[in-house]
């Protein structure tokens, strides 16, 4: 019998495949992982504590920097939470603009994941294609709000800027273009024999395990649980449009891959419907007091981000600043299953499983 000595290995915090400053300490028996411990906090900026000394409008730029590849949805969960507590009405054109940028953001976020995930596995070309097509969305955002990553676009009661002339036409042109690119992605990767052999059956878990860990987004739906807050608890204008919630059954990395591809198709479907009935004009800000004072009380507001349920627990004492602000960050919650998935796997599958969860470390640490 061959006896091996247990090896303690640090993966990170500089490892390029972790998409941020993140570290995993693994114990190895040969090539097999016997224990895995994520080490977080390298990007911690104290966003929730800082918010206690900021006005509600001042907090918005800080949300951009949590999940920095999905800043628009971060903006929305905060302003929507304040609007609910203040019972503010948002003009229809502003809400259409919000929905449009959130679904464009979902596509852009999934493109980052698709390209970097395949780069992790060893495929270079998909990474270049994904960032090429994401650039079109960033150009649209840049034209709308003057930024390409941290947008600071939404405001309590509406949005900061209206769409410039011709902007909506560019969004319309983007939809068929992106549909064609997604078909190319499928032909290039989804049926590739090497890719299938590498990914199918890896990182599998069932619905009971997903629920026990509080998973959401594709990490939950890949097990057969049909839960998407845009359908389950409709917000914004989502109840006006028809779209499907992609659901899998196998609960492995390949199922999560397929769901995110299909989610991009559904986002294009939502955008297409929204543009057909987009208000031609109208205000982009509701009637909002100059100094925002949220009535005393507390509330929890949740929406569906590209990574799952992002929630905002807001506690107010009636002042112009929150008494307490706590975000439910899907990257942080989804990451908790990682140690269980890695035990018994080889080192070659570590990055494959971690990338399949789709974390953004800025949101893990907040």
Core attributes:
single chain, 366 residues, alpha+beta, 3-stranded antiparallel beta sheet, globular
How are the secondary structure elements laid out?
Layout: E1 7-11, E2 23-29, E3 32-39, H1 47-50, H2 56-64, H3 71-86, H4 92-121, H5 125-145, E4 154-155, E5 158-159, H6 167-190, H7 193-199, H8 207-212, H9 218-221, H10 229-232, H11 253-276, E6 297-305, E7 308-316, E8 324-328, H12 330-335, H13 338-342, H14 350-357, H15 361-365
Antiparallel strand pairs: 1-2, 2-3, 4-5, 6-7, 7-8
Helix pairs in contact: 2-3, 3-4, 4-5, 4-11, 4-14, 5-6, 6-11, 11-14
Q: What does this protein look like?
A:
This protein is of the alpha+beta class and 366 residues long. Helix content is 47%, strand content 13%. The chain has 15 helices and 8 strands. It has a 3-stranded antiparallel β-sheet. Strands 6-7-8 form a 3-stranded antiparallel β-sheet. Strands 4-5 form a two-stranded antiparallel ribbon. A hairpin with a 2-residue loop joins strand 4 (154-155) and strand 5. Helix 5 (125-145) packs antiparallel against helix 6 and helix 11 (253-276) packs parallel to helix 14. The chain is globular and about 75 Å long. The mean pLDDT is 95.
Question: Number of helical segments?
Answer: 15
**Beginning-to-end CA distance, first to last residue:** 48 Å
Order of helices and strands: EEEHHHHHEEHHHHHHEEEHHHH
Overall pLDDT level: 95
Largest sheet: 3 strands, antiparallel
From the spread of the alpha carbons, the general shape counts as globular
Rounded to an integer in angstroms, the radius of gyration calculated over CA atoms is 21 Å
Bin the strand percentage: 5-15%
